[in-house]
């Protein structure tokens, strides 16, 4: 049914390096060079301040002077070297950071594109289960955090290079001090992880509450009308739902941030503990000249910069790892529908289902999950088939199986003699056009646009009573801010322009005015039949049942009765008469809407 979902896990650094390996290689190279150059700055300053510290210093460094305008420059070669190093750092860092920024933008866009592709490849039933809130949070929240985290990884490497460079200088100054600092760093690195570990747990909790907040926001926007009319409901919805998620979010965030702050500051201040111990304790046990002690303290002070950079960036990494785990979990719940080897199938003349069964899974209570089938049904090209039955009888579910949106758990769907399977499902779907009650109207005729199409669309807009409401240019609608009925007419126009073999309409006429209802049943459907289309109509409009070629009555997920030919008219004659549908009124509508689409 679906391809096994390969267990992928998002690695922050891998994300950047896989998007643009060369850029990242150069960014790290330049960043590391900048880091090493940084590490040279302290010895250089120390050399210029205390010539006796230098074992390598050339005599001319301390003896010569240059005059630059009114400025007197001592140690010109050393000064030139110093400023060259600063310029080198500037250049390396700017290039390195801009390369990282570019790679991080590419990685973010790449992640988003990957999510779009996965949503497209997601079977409809799974998409309905996951719901839009989780997908939107992944897109807006998690991917943003992942890309921030990934983009700071190279900065951590750069800061680490500076730290290692400074270590080299520290060894040169005093090996014992270096060993002590290493011990302090190992101790600090181990202990500072404790608050970070708990901090991350709280941040994960906060992230989980965010899904609830997002869902709550949807209710606020889409349920605004219902909430406005009932203050009790409004209050209860806010306090019991959104506020309660917000409360959980804020408690978890506050705890998390406090712990992260504790961890970061502790980590940053570790170097000061080390400075204190070296200055006040170690100096009493080891032979450290005043100059060496000054050098060591300067190195340690200088180290606080890159050390705090590493510590501060760790919070971005932690947030990114929370986001990556959440996205990983979501992706592992998103099976990939088989793309199929067959690219085209012959025009379907007969759509047949045999022994088809379907259950809505993934519900909180599986006992109450609706079960459809087993169903056997054959639908022919050139026929208008009505699916009728009470609310919840399974008409839409069956239609979604016929339009190949749902994949049956038992039984088969046949396009003529071919069984629909993973190989040909995509190709078979290209013969179907459907308007379900939750249809989405795109603002453009994506994949359809052409000048000829525009001309056809303009003609049909007029015939569908949308002239003056919507215009179309280069396949794009001027507006989709229409009434519910008008939107459905525009959706009908889109399906008409697609010119598919099989049409599925789920209660299309439900929100049309009486005039257009008649046009739909008396003109549009017969015209599609005349064009030899296979038309499946879900309807509750019993006054039009007699117009069907086949009436499929459903109850409790099963077909109760199939009525064909004259029997359709006989069984529904009374309702047609009862509803006052006269031949003359039909004729009138026929003339009114002559040539509709
Ligand atoms: N996405 C879903 N997840 C779980 N259960 C669902 C889902 N969609 C529908 N159902 C259940 O399946 C049953 C049949 O629904 P279906 O939409 O097929 O009925 P219907 O005959 O088209 O109803 P109506 O005339 O009201 O549109 C219902 O009882 C409903 O609770």
Structural overview:
- This protein has 597 residues and is α/β, with parallel strands linked by helices.
- A hairpin with a 2-residue loop joins strand 11 and strand 12 (476-477).
- A six-stranded mixed sheet has the order 10-13-14-7-15-16, with helices on both faces.
- Helix 6 (175-222) runs antiparallel to helix 8 (231-285) and helix 6 (175-222) packs parallel to helix 9.
- The protein is elongated, with a radius of gyration of 36 Å.
- It contains 16 helices and 16 strands.
- It starts with a strand and ends in a 5-residue tail after the last helix.
- Helix content is 62%, strand content 13%.
- The protein has two domains: 2-336, ABC transporter type 1, transmembrane domain (ABC transporter transmembrane region fold), CATH 1.20.1560.10; 350-592, P-loop containing nucleotide triphosphate hydrolases (Rossmann fold), CATH 3.40.50.300.
- The chain has helices spanning 12-19, 21-49, 59-63, 76-120, 124-173, 175-222, 224-228, 231-285, 290-332, 395-402, 425-429, 451-463, 484-498, 514-530, 566-578, 583-592, and strands at 2-3, 65-68, 71-74, 336-337, 350-359, 371-380, 384-389, 410-415, 418-419, 432-435, 472-473, 476-477, 502-506, 534-538, 550-555, 558-564.
- The structure holds adenosine-5'-triphosphate.
- Residues 128, 360, 363, 370, 389, 391-397 line the site of adenosine-5'-triphosphate (ATP).
- The site of adenosine-5'-triphosphate has 12 residues, from helix 10.
- Residues 24-319 form the ABC transmembrane type-1 domain.
- InterPro entries: AAA+_ATPase (IPR003593), ABC1_TM_dom (IPR011527), ABC1_TM_sf (IPR036640), ABC_transporter-like_ATP-bd (IPR003439), ABC_transporter-like_CS (IPR017871), Cyc_pep_transpt_SyrD/YojI (IPR005898), P-loop_NTPase (IPR027417), Type_1_exporter (IPR039421).
- Residues 351-581 form the ABC transporter domain.
- Residues 577-597 are annotated as: Disordered.
- Its main location: membrane.
């Amino acid at each position: 049914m679906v391809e096994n979902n390969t267990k992928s896990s998002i690695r922050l650094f891998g994300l950047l390096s896989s998007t643009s390996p060369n850029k990242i290689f150069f960014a790290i190279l330049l960043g590391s060079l900048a880091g090493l150059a940084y590490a040279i700055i302290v010895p250089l300053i120390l050399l210029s301040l205390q010539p006796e510290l230098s074992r390598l210093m050339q005599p001319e460094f301390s003896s010569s002077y240059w005059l630059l305008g009114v400025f007197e420059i001592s140690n010109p070669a050393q000064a030139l070297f110093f400023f060259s190093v600063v310029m080198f750092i500037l250049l390396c860092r700017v290039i390195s950071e801009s390369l990282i920024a570019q790679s991080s933008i590419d990685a973010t866009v790449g992640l988003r594109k990957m999510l779009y592709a996965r949503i497209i490849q997601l079977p409809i039933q799974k998409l309905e289960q996951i719901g839009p809130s989780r997908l939107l949070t992944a897109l807006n929240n998690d991917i943003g955090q992942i890309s921030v985290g990934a983009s700071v990884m190279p900065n951590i490497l750069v800061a680490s290079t500076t730290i290692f460079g400074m270590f080299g200088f520290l060894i040169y100054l005093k090996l014992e001090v270096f060993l002590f600092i290493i011990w302090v760093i190992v101790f600090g690195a181990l202990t500072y992880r404790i608050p970070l570990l708990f901090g991350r747990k709280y941040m994960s909790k906060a992230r989980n509450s965010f899904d609830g907040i997002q869902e709550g926001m949807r209710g606020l926007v889409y349920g605004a009308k219902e909430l406005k009319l009932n203050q009790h409901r409004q209050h209860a919805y806010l306090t019991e739902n959104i506020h309660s998620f917000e409360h959980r979010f804020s408690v978890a965030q506050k705890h998390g941030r406090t712990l992260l702050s504790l961890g970061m500051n502790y980590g940053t201040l570790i170097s000061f503990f080390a400075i204190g111990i070296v200055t006040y304790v170690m100096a009493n046990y080891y032979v450290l000249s005043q100059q060496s002690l000054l050098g060591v303290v300067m190195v340690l002070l200088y180290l606080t910069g890159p050390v705090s950079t590493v510590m501060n960036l760790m919070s971005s990494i932690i947030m990114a790892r929370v986001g990556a785990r959440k996205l990983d979990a979501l992706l592992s719940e998103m099976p990939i529908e088989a793309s199929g080897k067959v690219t085209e199938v012959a025009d379907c003349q007969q759509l047949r289902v045999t022994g088809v069964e379907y259950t809505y899974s993934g519900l909180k209570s599986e006992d109450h999950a609706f079960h459809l089938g087993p169903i056997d049904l054959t639908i022919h090209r050139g026929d208008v088939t009505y699916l009728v039955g009470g609310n919840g009888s399974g008409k839409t579910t069956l239609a979604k199986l016929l339009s190949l949106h749902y994949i049956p758990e038992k039984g088969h769907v046949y396009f003529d003699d071919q069984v629909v399977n993973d190989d040909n499902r995509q190709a078979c779907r290209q013969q179907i056009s459907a308007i379900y009650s939750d249809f989405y109207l795109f603002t453009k005729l994506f994949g359809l646009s052409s000048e000829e199409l525009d001309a056809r669309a303009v003609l049909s807009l007029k015939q569908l009573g949308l002239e003056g409401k919507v215009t179309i240019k280069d396949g794009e609608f001027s507006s989709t801010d229409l009434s519910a009925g008008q939107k459905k007419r525009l959706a009908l126009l889109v399906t008409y322009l697609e010119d598919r073999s099989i049409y599925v309409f789920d209660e299309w006429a439900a929100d049309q005015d009486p005039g257009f209802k008649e046009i739909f049943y008396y003109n549009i459907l017969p015209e599609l039949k005349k064009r030899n289309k296979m038309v499946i109509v879900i309807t509750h409009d019993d006054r039009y049942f007699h117009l069907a070629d086949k009436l499929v009555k459903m109850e409790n997920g099963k077909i109760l009765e199939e009525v064909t030919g004259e029997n359709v008219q006989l069984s529904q004659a009374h309702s047609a008469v009862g509803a006052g549908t006269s031949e003359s009124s039909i004729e009138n509508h026929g003339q009114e809407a002559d040539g509709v689409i």
